[in-house]
Write a structure and sequence with these properties.
This protein is an alpha/beta fold. The chain is 36% helix and 24% strand. The chain folds into 2 domains: 141 residues, Rossmann fold (3-Layer(aba) Sandwich); 75 residues, no CATH class. Bound molecules: adenosine-5'-diphosphate and magnesium ion.
Length: 241
């Protein structure tokens, strides 16, 4: 089976700073992969390069075998790549379902169709009962899930999640992990940036580790956390899986 996403030798500089440096990895369909590394390692920049928010300095990105690097983000979104942002910014004067509908307007102008898709998205993240709630009635985990629902409404094949569980309590994160597992079981491919290693170990089948913009390790979570270079540069010598 061909890989859904194939990132080849991707680099991006900002002035003299090489934020992403020759990174290559592939994502198999229906798998959850975690992108980890210290702050400033280049994780969000990688997402921006794949989603089209930034153009690479060099390198290639293939999605379903088609070269997509440098394409406008709305085209990449229409091809099937959706992302969430590290900072959640719901539109406060719209209801929960109206927020989720925004994603659907990437592929339809039909309001009824957008609403029905948005309700499905809310259902799959456990927010169906709050569809008509106001944004200020949502808890923090709800808001994170609304971001995911918004992304799902674009009908993606690949979902990029940037620290979607940051700021959640461990018990709240468990609920998110269950939602992500279910989505992957239904065929969605997920690439997530996540700092909490316990969550990474639980949810990801593959881990890619970035450090100073470069990939320093890749593999199964249990192998990656035992990698001396990963321990030294990211997890610290006190880490025990
Ligand atoms: N738009 C930008 N302009 C200049 N520097 C940037 C920009 N975006 C990110 N950087 C820098 O690139 C590096 C990688 O950032 P980022 O991808 O956000 O890291 P991470 O998400 O792993 O914490 C950091 O040093 C950051 O300051
Ligand atoms: Mg980041």
């Amino acid at each position: 089976m061909t890989d859904l996403l194939d990132v080849q030798n991707l680099s991006r500089s900002f002035g003299g700073l090489v934020a992403v440096n020759g990174v290559s990895f592939t994502l198999a369909a229906g798998q959850i992969t975690a992108l980890i590394g210290p702050n400033g390692a280049g994780k969000t920049t990688c997402f921006n390069l794949v989603a089209g928010a930034l153009k690479p300095t060099t390198g290639k990105v293939f999605f379903e075998g088609r070269s997509i690097e440098g394409m406008p983000p709305e085209n990449i979104c229409r091809m099937g790549i959706a992302r969430t942002f590290q900072i959640v910014r719901p539109m406060r004067d719209m209801s929960v379902v109206e927020n989720a509908m925004v994603g659907a307007f990437s592929w339809t102008t039909n309001v009824a169709e957008a609403r029905s898709t948005a309700l499905d998205s809310l259902e799959s993240v456990g927010l169906a009962a709050k569809a008509n709630a106001r944004i200020d009635q949502l808890t923090m985990p709800d808001r994170k899930m609304l971001e995911v629902a918004k992304a799902l409404s674009t009908r993606p094949k690949l979902l990029l999640l940037d620290e979607v569980m940051a700021g959640l309590r461990p018990t709240e994160a468990v609920g998110v992990v269950q939602v992500l597992r279910k989505l992957a079981e239904n065929g969605l491919t997920i690439l997530l940036v996540e700092h909490v290693m316990r969550i990474v170990m639980e949810v990801a089948s593959t881990v890619v580790v970035l450090h100073h913009g470069a990939k320093i390790a890749e593999g199964r979570p249990q192998d990656v956390v035992a990698d001396p270079q990963v321990l030294e540069s990211y997890l610290g010598t006190g880490f025990h899986a």
